[in-house]
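so im writing up the methods section and need the Peptide chain release factor 3 record in one place, dumping it here so i stop losing it
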Amino acid sequence: MLDTRSNRPDLPAEIARRRTFAIISHPDAGKTTLTEKFLLYGGAIQMAGQVRAKGEARRTRSDFMKMEQDRGISVSASAMSFDFGQFRFNLVDTPGHSDFSEDTYRTLTAVDAAVMVIDGAKGVESQTQKLFEVCRMRDLPILTFCNKMDRESRDTFEIIDEIQENLAIDVTPASWPIGMGRDFLGCYDLLRDRLELMDRADRNKVAESIAIEGLDDPRLAEHVPAAMLAQLREEIEMARELLPALDPQAVMDGTMTPIWFGSAINSFGVKELMDGIGSYGPEPQPQSASPRQIAPDETKVAGFVFKVQANMDPKHRDRVAFLRLASGHFRRGMKLTHVRTKKPMAVSNPVLFLASDRELAEEAWAGDIIGIPNHGQLRIGDTLTEGEALKVTGIPSFAPELLQGVRSGDPMKTKHLEKALMQFAEEGAAKVFKPMIGSGFIVGVVGALQFEVLASRIELEYGLPVRFEPSQFTSARWVTGPKTAVEKFADVNKGHIAYDNDGDVVYMTRLQWDIDRIERDYPELSLSATKEMMV
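--- predicted struct ---
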């Protein structure tokens, strides 16, 4: 019944056992709780910290930045590695708030698959749909977990229909819920013909699993009330008639998603989902790069930076670049070439992450994510290799949707403010523009919450109170074209020109027609809302 082999490539065993994935969801669907339970099952933590609980338990292990703990949302994307059975899972946590789409997009360039979490009562919500579209653009395989079945939920067929209609993907049930809300007993595992029963008394306990020989097995009646059992048999019979059977290759191709039902807070359905990630999730995939693609089983090491996080440990004002290894077998102390600067770089203290815990990475393989502590040399989009001039492609930077000026509460600390802003720009947390005329900076973000995050972090990490204030501009576009034409354009439009932290020319304006006019009057120039972070 359990067909796990699609046409998998023949990879070295250590690479083949890697599963690098992200969890995508709408805020409050249960992503952080599910992450906690993954770590619990992986033996990585002893007690999962429920997101809205009290005291010690509520400081969830994967949300370590102060604002994340205060709000119960994931703001920074952390990476966590742990073993589960024969597999090594690399879980990249995506920001869970709608304002953090660019950081999330970049995170999805570093994974081979996504787990989509939906709320059983709410179905497919707006943020889930946006993130799903990003996964589709990258042809990422998606596995679905329908959470909160221990609460009142929608009809199972209705949930599956909505996913198929809204996301245009085939859905195949890997498990089937028995009851819902107060009457939720557990699930029937359709892949293994097992009855999985939930234990409400112990939220961290693995579900009781009973092997069943098909739906007519008399042992079912010992555990499931007659009316619920009749309904279960009828629904599964309909599901098998109406819904497609699991096709591992279709899952790999991103055209089908298997769905598991459960309750993350009660640790129910989580282990089955993890088994599914191991069985149906992809091993490390080839990485697009220029001038050639990078295959995971190449002997030489190559990797790219998809995130930079500063001040992860307030005791050490450090900066860590998250590097996804695209190929090879990395060993601590290796000398790699920093392709952008063409300089050698000894990677002496690489770290593996478990939420806020870290350990030295003595070795790592293609598919793994390691942290490289550095003092600002590494930026998002940078490629590290064993000498070959490869540049990983497809890591975008988006034009901000909101622009504001920023002022320090202490005029004597302007230099401190500049340092903080540059750090956040390199981290990808915000766009920072230096106007051609006048002093000060303009900060651009995707959503309003990011201004709060920045103000909070500048005060917390630099001891510098700041305030954001309205800017005369509402849009920013990168100006590209022949060098002399760009310089001439900048000279004529000084009042609208600024430079980003890479020194690239940006045109600032209030009005869309102004952008249209420039594109008409300067056909040799391009005003772009995205910039490829390929360096």
